[in-house]
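ok here's Acyl dehydratase:
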Amino acid sequence: MPNLVVDFDTLLTLSGKDLGTTDYRQITQEQINLFADATDDHQWIHTDPERAKDGPFGAPIAHGFLTLSLIIPFWGELFDVEGVTTKVNYGLDKVRFTSPVTVGSKVRMQAAIAEVTEVKGGAQIKVNATIEIEGQERPAVVAEFLARFYK
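and the structure:
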């Protein structure tokens, strides 16, 4: 169950609302390998643990887009809107991969609703999303996530 569940009318009032932080999820080599298979990106820094030990990060790292894709399950932990007919991931703005995520790391997301805008038939929200790495100061991903909710 998400931390915050609201109806459509309440959604329109949430500009500036801090949604808090999710639980941590551990990044596994299996996840990285599955993502490599799904995207046909088998670069050794992701999929060859032995070679990656001697690479620039000392271990395999998650694909940046794998880490970014975690916005969706993390989002489900934080927020939902009831009483709408359709929910759409509308896009991303200003995405930055600011720190690599090594295999075995734990990540979580902190999010806040930056802006709510009415659109034809619904509302669009812009969410400031930061995917943090446990024990590290620099986050893995900083992005503006856009979602739409239609009545």
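+1. The mean pLDDT is 96.
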